[in-house]
Amino acid sequence: MGEKRKIKVLVCKPGLDGHDRGAKVIARALRDAGMEVIYTGLHQTPDMVVQTVLQEDPDAVILSMLSGAHKALCPVIMEKLKENEIDDVLISVGGIIPDEDKPFLEEHGLKGFYGPGTELKTIVEFVKNNLKR
Amino acid sequence: MTEIDESKTLKPTKTERREKFTNLSDIEIKRLYTPGDIKDFNYDIDLGTPGKYPFTRGAYPNMYRGRLWTMRQFAGFGTAAQTNTRFKFLLEHGTTGLSVAFSLHTIYGYEADDDEALGEVGKEGVSIDTLKDMETLFSGIDLSKISTSMTINAPASILLAMYIVTAEKQGHTADKLRGTIQNDILKEYIAQKSWIFPPEPSMRLIIDTIEYCAKYVPQWYTISISGYHIREAGSTAVQELAFTLADGFAYVEAAMKRGLDVDDFAPRLSFFFNSHNNFFEEVCKYRAARRIWAKRLKNKYGAKKVESMRLRFHTQTAGVSLSAQEPENNIARVTIQGLAAVLGGTQSLHTNSFDEALCLPTEKAVKIALRTQQIIAHESGAADTVDPLAGSYYVEWLTNKMEEESEVYFKKIEALGGVIPAIKANFFQKEIASASYKYQREVEARDRTIVGVNDVQLREPCATPLLKIDENVAREQIENLQRLRDQRSNEKVQAKLDALKEAAKGTENLMPYIIDAIREYASIGEVMATLKDVFGVYVEDSIF
Q: How many contacts, defined by CB atoms under 8 Å, are there between A and B?
């Protein structure tokens, strides 16, 4: 067919936070936009996230975090991805991320923050326009 | 009675803002309601006197003219000492009951220094590992004088054990204690997701607490059957109503199966509902809930005592309705939601703070939230008469409609084999995921206006001061835990955990074993690990 491969996105819930409404809504919206979406389910440790990235080889990963654990967990996830030589995947965060934490997360290589009220089409466009491969 | 032409009230005209008006449960709302909409209405059967069967008008005869609802603000963050300070602040400003939010590692039964707890200690609630932390949490607060609600589910029996022993050390016996443990595991599988064990052993632990409290802690509410989280996860109001009551029926059936008399435990079951923005829909939800529960308890479960049929509930305003944009607007939203809860006859209320879409609430925001309740109570006049909205054609029609739609859901759940099989078939999870996606699409299509979010172009940068949790909290909590491990008798702890493990393999009530272990300062992580060895853990399907 010669068609372009579908964009593949991994939606993750790292940490103990069980608030999965946003993650599930985003997962559906990306699927409805024609992407291939994998949702990890809850309670993913950094190692589990990295293992899934290695197995599934997604183009983008969205970490959904509402508990305030982002500053502790994101750098660990990014470090472990780097150890596994994964550097061509867009990694974004959805949830409650205060503005002042964003530069810190950007320094660790995360790009794209989807806070409360972000429209689904904005997220879809962001993913499409910021892929690294 | 005047004949009403129904077609005239339904047909849209060009002068109306929308072709179709619907509430958040997707029920179509007519232009006008008239006596024709409640043709079979019978005051004595459908409403009755407040405080009497079927309780549609209220749980008690004089409602807030006697005593106002309990103003119960949910609080907890950082260490036990920090939350103790916030509790004292709330008590000084007129809060009348405490409500504890626990840290996620406590909710999942991990110790603060477990790998799984990384980044979570004290972030969403107060970090509790052992009895020592509980003693600090309530230091200087007389547990015989206050009622305490604890939002804890899978490890509810452990936290209750800690509370009982803390009170004991203050010199109070368990029969003096008043409060609630959430202890509602079914809605965890359905919506909130802080499950640990599989459904069956989880139900056993819950029935153990019901049985224990009926004997020794008679003033304690043993389950707060919760629709709040179901709604927050994205359900409609009707789904919240139906799924919550279905969970309630499942607990009643499980306790009866254990051999308990329904009238011995049903009076200690309570409910916890959400209050969202559609004012009338929320009021009708509470009225319908009371009526459905009363009918079921009387007709299906054979309750004889009036207390068994009387549904009492706590309400929290909808966290999910709060916007991060122009956060001050949330004060107006919370006022409407709080008023709906009061006009729906709530027994206690938590009003959210306006900054909660951004962070844990700051002291200023918490104070405004509490003041909002006090303004409703003392200035609005809403508390001066019982169920003032009764008799409105719209309110009675909508109350009936919500009851009817709930009955449809009860039949579907029954057809799936009951609540637990329906959970395993992902029935609730799919219903909720679809409803939340539909809602989000409607908001983005501008079919629903969220003021300051999807109706404006200009956006000012947010200047709300945020509450930050000090990253040292985790270090401090871990140091406290490690110090305690050196101070207690680890030998005694192990002996009590071994006894618990043996008992868990049988069918005995586990509460006395848990209390024994807690008294020796076993940690929540150790008790949960012991039970996991016997019960295993639950694994969820990742559907979306």
A: 106
CATH no. for residue A28? 3.40.50.280
- The single residue listed with the structure tokens 């607007």 is B329
Domain boundaries along the sequence of chain B: 43-67+182-444, 474-535
Helix (H) or strand (E) run with residue B526 in it: helix B524-535
B231-276 tens-digit pLDDT: 999 999 999 999 999 999 999 999 999 999 999 999 999 999 999 9
The angle at the Cα of B270, spanning B226 to B424, to the nearest 5 degrees, equals 40
What's the sign of the alpha-carbon dihedral B174, B178, B184, B188? Answer: negative
Instruction: Find the helix packing angle between B199-216 and B524-535, rounded to 10°.
Output: 130
Nearest-10 Cα torsion for B49, B53, B58, B60: 80
Asked whether residue A55 is assigned to any structural domain, the reply reads yes
Domain holding A35, by residue range, is 8-125
Q: How far apart are CA B486 and CA B473, in angstroms?
A: 20
Q: At what angle do helices B199-216 and B156-170 cross, to 10 degrees?
A: 20
Q: Does A95 lie at the interface with B, CB-CB under 8 angstroms?
A: no
The whole model's pTM is what? 0.91
| Of the partner residues B124, B323, B433, the one whose CB lies closest to the CB of residue A67 | B124
Q: How is residue B277 annotated by DSSP?
A: S
Helical segments of B300-392, H only:
306-309, 329-343, 363-378
Residue whose C-alpha is closest to residue B60's, from B70, B49, B71: B49
For the segment B438-461, what is each residue's pLDDT rounded down to a tens digit? 999 999 888 889 998 888 755 555
Residues of chain A found within 8 Å of residue B462, distances taken between Cβ atoms: 99
- Nearest beta carbon to residue B120 from set A15, A28, A41: A15
Tell me the CATH architecture of domain B43-67+182-444.
Alpha-Beta Barrel (3.20)
